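Intended use. Records like the one below are meant for learning the mapping from a protein sequence to its folded structure. Do not use them to infer anything beyond what is encoded.
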Amino acid sequence: MLIAVANVLILLRGVIPDIVSIVVANAMAIGGAIAGLVGLQRFTGMRGRHFHNTVLLAAFIAVHTWFSLVRPDLAFRNVNLAATLFIVCIQCAWLLLAGVDETTRVKTRVTGLVYALFCAVNAVRIIEIAVHPFSNENFLSYSGVDSLFVMLNPLLMILLTYSMALMVADYLRADLALEEEKFFKAFHSSPYAVIISNLEDGAIMEANRGFEAISGHAAKEAIGATALGLHLWENEGGRESFVSELAASGRVRDKEMRFRKKNGEMLDALLSADIITINGRRAILSSISDVTEQKRARERIQNLLREKEFLLKEVHHRIKNNMNSIQILLAMKAGTQEDPAAKSALQESAGRVRSMMLLYDRLYRSESVGSISVRDYLPSLVGEIVGNFYSAVPVRIETDFEDIVLEAKMLHPLGIIINEIVTNSMKYGFEGRSEGLVRVTAARRDGRVRLVVADDGAGLPASVELARSPGFGLQLVGMLVEHLDGSVAIERGGGTRFVIEFPA
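Structure written out for the chain above:
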């Protein structure tokens, strides 16, 4: 555009001021050449700095102004123009013939040679003026060799235009070939069945190897036919429903469908599709993923899970019944004993079995395998222990448990500890009282659980310590606390408080 405007201004010489037709016009021509260099660099991805070209343009304008207005001299102006164009064109030629990589050079070689011709013409022009200077100041009245050079420039510009058009066409062809190669590889290497079909009648326009593997139909056999004609759909209404949904939203994603293979076998599939335009006609790009084996595997897993769930329920009921039978047998045996010590030992054993049975039941009902919250286990345990003791003294229960999730290997000894302490309170703590209170709390602080089991009964004698306790129950408490890597303290006064701490 700059060069075209420059030529118009030059043709208006004598009609418009000389500074416009000579200085401005030629400055625009040089600016157009530099802009062409910048465009070529961006087109080939070889961007560079242009400070030196900015200086070159400024120097050209200064020299041209001097030899146009101050000391008019056409020969010097022609040398200035030719030299400046030579410098710009040689940069363009070097970029296209040597600056780009070998693959790109194949596409830019012709345009680079045209720029080399520009360089040659301007170099010969400078030499010719130096050998045969002239003093004619009329730019439009040339003769002989000068006229030849004047005619060569537009011819070279036409040749440059064609060469650039060919260069761009080569780039476009290469890009198109690359995109076609990408599409071909992606289309045919996909493990899914991919087909392109006409939206209106369902005629298949293209099918990949995945389609052949999944459906059993050869691509040559499928192209030109319709999905209904190949009996791919389980029923004709399936395609109508699919096309309606696709037309409404423009796309379908992972729609579960059933299709028929060539051998008549049915397959379960996930169908995804988009509407695309090919040569002005709307088409459907469909991708079909065969999930028959995955669906069968899921069904097998679900059946196995149902069987295992049934077996687990059976095992749970049998274990629970067995533990319950053991507890009943121990309680019945205790009822037949006349020896108080034997009777007490059997009752305590029944209580320990009850504690384990309750923990087992809570674990079975828990969503997380092998661990439950103390809030779901201990309150029920305390209530059952107290409820199993017949006493004329009404005993109130208070519990306060944080939501602390512990593993079964920790909850099991913890349940027996509480069973022993609360049982001891119920047996000895409230004799001669009108009422009683059992309070159990648990909280977690700084990575440790603090469990407190207390009553407001008569209190534990000062002579009784865990290590020297005459009864097995308190000795068992000490051993289980040690098993938890914890500590236990007994506080007396207004009843008895067992303070147990352990890491968790």
